[in-house]
Sequence to fold (346 residues):
Amino acid sequence: MIIAKARAVDGPDKPFRSAEINRRELDSYDVLIEIKYAGICHSDIHTAHGEWGNVNYPLVPGHEIAGIVTGTGPKVTKYQVGDRVGVGCMVDSCGECENCRKGEEQYCLKGKVDTYAGVDKYGEPTQGGYSTHIVVHENFVLHIPDNITLEAAAPLLCAGITTYSPLNHWEAGPGKKVAVVGMGGLGHMAVKIAHAMGAEVTVLSQTLNKKEDGMQFGADHYYATRDPETFNTLAGYFDIILNTVSAKIDIDAYFSLLTLDGTLVNVGAPGEPLSLNVMSLISHRRSFAGSMIGGIRETQEMLDFCSKHNIVPRIEVISADQIDEAYERVLSSDVRYRFVIDISTM
Ligand code: NAP
Ligand code: ZN
Fold:
């Protein structure tokens, strides 16, 4: 058994505390990673606060993991000690179902194994990246390109792939008008990626407070959704709307911004249901879609795309003692634009 230091939470209203967790001894295809940085995703907060249903505490969140390989199982071929690697939201899947065979392991028909708050094939609860070490099957480990620092790479493993995958799938590119709703961790990555794909990008943020940043990230236009005039000005304008908002919003207002055959893709995952008036869809043959992270092959493609286009998140590195404070700041939309924990402070 490998003992890792970690930060764990014991209940929905509890603060983080120091903990020790067990990582399994390396199986044939396992890679041991010394974690250097872990990003804080809003999903960590939804989960830690029990907003997505019951979780088993103590919980160690973290699915934006970057570190160095320090050990390999006897049959590992893809990684060597010293490699710079990442791990995202899943650490295993059945590998055999139709979706896994297509490289869409996130939609595994038997259920992917989440990096934390999941149960692995050994029957053990999984614990995430707010910790010093993790053991992962080599098929769920990613290579971090040389020109991306480990702290910048961490958020790409969730915020990067979760926005890249739908933008790719719905073909954001030259001639396409893309709106990004909410400019937090996911949203700011979506702006950078959609811009690099060649789309015309508009940010729809609650206020104009972050407009300067948004334009620097590559937005062509920036509007405040608290201004009702925005919804008149942009009616019927967009081909693709990517909703990254972590809370319930009036989704009908956003459908009205889609053109004929336009698609609103929801990646934001609030704990409470959104309600919609189907007339919003019927009137212009619009579609409402969802998307969950991305497969492993596509995640590597995203990392290579970011490397090629010099795309990195804008981050604020914090110490392990600042996790509670960071959660508060994310909840009040005071994040610029991803908190990343320096694991050496653990
Ligand atoms: P985040 O950094 O907190 O960003 C969310 C943004 O939404 C905020 O910065 C804010 O942007 C906007 N917002 C927040 N509350 C709002 C409200 N009441 N009304 C309108 N806008 C509001 O969160 P994140 O880490 O990017 O994650 C966003 C969501 O995606 C979360 O629900 C997360 O669980 C989910 N997620 C889904 C997947 C997936 O696979 N589908 C993967 C990762 C995360 P402005 O300040 O610009 O308005
Ligand atoms: Zn995430």
Remarks:
- The first strand starts at residue 2 and ends at 9.
- The pocket of NAP (ligand 1) is lined by residues 41-43, 46, 158, 162, 182-187, 205-206, 244-247, 249, 267-270, 291-293, 330, 333, 335 (CB under 6 Å).
- The CA atoms of residues 4 and 336 lie 29 Å apart.
